[in-house]
Design goal:
The chain has a four-stranded mixed beta sheet with strand order 1-2-3-4, sandwiched between helices. It has four helices and four strands, in the order ααβββαβα. The chain is about 35% helix and about 25% strand.
Length: about 110
């Protein structure tokens, strides 16, 4: 699992270390959700007009049943926190996978190394 965790962080450009995520979850500024070998890390973002639940990362072994159960738990948490949206970014292939759970593609993420 640690290998998948580090691989996911690497895919994000190493903007967080594993310890950063652990520390943020311990401080309750991020939330760690896990069902068996599937993990999602979230964070509530508070904007002037809305609260939004952001998926920081998802990694592990994808299983449709576990994914649906994890998704439902995380969405319920977001609603309980007053969030209007649950957002994420990721590889293009996630559009189809998450589309089955009711997600809509609303844009793309671009990155330019400075």
């Amino acid at each position: 699992m640690l290998r998948r965790f580090k691989k996911c962080l690497n895919g994000m450009g190493n903007v967080y270390s594993p310890q950063d995520i652990v520390d943020a979850c311990n401080a309750r500024t991020m939330q760690w959700w896990q069902i068996e070998d599937l993990v999602t890390v979230t964070q509530v973002s508070i904007f002037p007009q809305k609260r939004v639940l952001s998926c920081i990362m998802t990694f592990g072994r994808w299983d449709e049943n576990n994914a649906k159960a994890l998704h439902d738990q995380v969405c319920e948490f977001g609603r309980s926190e007053g969030c209007e949206y649950f957002v994420t970014e990721g590889r293009k292939g996630w559009s189809k996978t998450l589309g089955a759970l009711g997600w809509k593609t609303t844009g793309i993420t671009l990155r330019h190394k400075l």
